Each structure stands twice: as structure tokens, then as C-alpha cells.
Amino acid sequence: MSRPPYPPEFRRQMVELVRAGRTPEELAKEFEPTAQSIRNWVVQADLDEGRRDDGLTSAEKQELVRLRREVRQLREEREILRKAAVFFARETDRPR
Fold this sequence. Notes:
By secondary structure, the chain is mainly α. Helices cover about 70% and strands about 0% of the residues. The protein has 2 domains: about 55 residues, Arc Repressor Mutant, subunit A; about 40 residues.
């Protein structure tokens, strides 16, 4: 079972502590998240703030999720329209 995500303010505080010289391992012992989670937060904060450019910012990740959802919906709608077109083509080809 997974726990709810840590609040953004808590993540920001962990990032600031790492930037101030604490190690993710120290913080993991003192607080609950794993050292790897803390390292991930630091990397994401660096991406979001333009300190590094080897990954997607949070805004880019959100846009990617939104666009993938939109593509999935459009594909489903296209498939429904294709099936409807086939159905109606059969109906109009039938002799009365």
C-alpha cells in the first residue's frame, strides 16, 4: 500500500536542506522519505529552476500527461466514428 505524496512545502524544505549541505542519507534517517526520494526531489527542483536541463520540468511532465490523455481520447473517438461509418455504410447498401 502506498502512502499519500509528501506535501510540496515538505519537499521544498528537504531540497533546501540538501542545498545547505545535508546529505539525503542524513535526512532520510531524521525524516521519513528515502534518500533516493530526496535525491529525486533535488533533481526535479533543479530542472524546474533551470539549474539543469537533462530532463523534463514539472510543467512539461504535466503537459505530456495531458497530451497523452488527449491523444488516447481522440483515438477512441476516431474508432467510434470509424465503426459508425461502417455501420451506416452497410445500412445504406442494403436493398429495401
